[in-house]
Write the structure tokens for this entry.
Amino acid sequence: MRKYFSTFLMRWKMETQYRGAALGGIICQMVFGLILISIYRALYLGNPQPMPLSAIVTYVWLQQAFFRMLLSSDNDLMDKIRTGGIAYEMCRPVSLYGYYYARIMAMKLMGSLLRAVPMLLFASFLPEGWGIGAPASLPALLLSLMGLVLGLLCMCALENITMGISMRTIDFKGFQALLNLLMTTFSGNILPLTLFPDAWQQVIRLLPYAQLLDAPIRLYTGETPLAQAGQVFLIQGIWLCVFVCLGLYLWHRNTKKMIVQGG
Amino acid sequence: MNTIKLYLHSMKMLLKSQMQYPWSFCLQTIAQIVMEGGEMMAVLLVVNRFQALNQWTGGDLLFFFGIMSITFYLTECFGRGITGNFAALIRSGNLDTFFLRPRGIMTQVLCHAIDPRRIGCIAVGVAALVLGCRQSRVIWTLPKIFLFTEAVFFGMLLILGLFLIEAVFAVHSVKSIELVNAVTYGGRSACQYPVDIYPGPLRVLFGTLAPFGLVLQVPSAVILDKPMMGIDGFLAFLCPLTGLLFFAFMYFVFQKAMKYYRSTGS
């Protein structure tokens, strides 16, 4: 376990090196957040909805803040798959899956925290109706944090499955674009899941993509009552188990018959 | 004329080289359709839930979405040299070779890339536009068709101009500047919806500074018979020209930046 933890720490330190690069991204993301909020404000002006506007605004800010958690992948690994450098990786005395799981987790966590903290600070100083709202209650905040951790674990496992498939197909651009679309649509990044037709939501909320950010955000805004938190964690846990098992199986199969392309 | 012939010729060659991998091309085009289709679905879902946005009906919103994606992705398709990764040209030192040839730098940059996969996104844009026209019962007349073509053409120049900002920064900093995305991709996202719904600062930004509002949306509003910002008639035909102005200004700045250009030496 220690070696995976130190992999995580190493990657964590690497990620903190690029603070300057993050700044441009943060401002860009803030502008996107403000644009989206203006649209929803204008829409609400004409047709108020049962879901309060403040909850939508909070939803948008949290989605924008943790955007990096959704869409970031290990480019080093992709290069290694393409160039054949993956052969060296197989010499490491660690489980390949665990090693890359720790790496991607550090990347996603640090990449998004670096951006989320200043963004959420900015959003909390904005006036009422523009800025992020307070959590429903203290327990709601704690439970949503726990949901976020579970969501992160799910996301990393999902990412590893994508990588596992990439190892087979070598070229993955088209495929990855499709997966990213599913991710941004059904995780609530393009449009908050709470604004989807009510009938759709019954199904969408059970999909794996909703577990990543949507579930913790709903806990935060209090839309999911505290009593149902256990149920949410259960769904997240089930998906996590499914993804990890599938990923482990896929990577195990891949390492048994790896085809290295030149290199 | 010679330049245009050269451009068309290189487009043909690039297209031919991309078509060497037909399967990969097909898959990536489908991916583009699905991606842009997802964005369109978001608009449809918004219309489904809210019905209208101020004076704009669902059909109008689809029209705005359609004209924006058609313009943006036509630019990405034919102006790939600039909208793609201009910073990489500088970093790799490939731009140096452009200085040795007896043609303008801008011509060569535009000639060196094309992105035909964007046809997928453009198709989705056309679908949204047709759907929007039918729902809003747009009656096409000759002036309206002219206005539409004008808006799209100058809209493309405007978007090229916006991407040139990033290119100019890249000359100075070598790395691409993520911040400029706020006006390029941010502009696309924001102006999928009519600009008059936005609060003051954003309206000024996307209405006049990065004039998507004047170039694309004022003409769209006239076509929909719901003039925006009180601009109608002859004035509406003049508005898209701001796109040309913007491009001309950025072209001038770009040429200046090229004078300053120092090779990275790689």
Notes: The longest helix of chain A spans residues 138-169. The two ends of chain A are 31 Å apart (CA to CA). The mean pLDDT of chain A is 83.
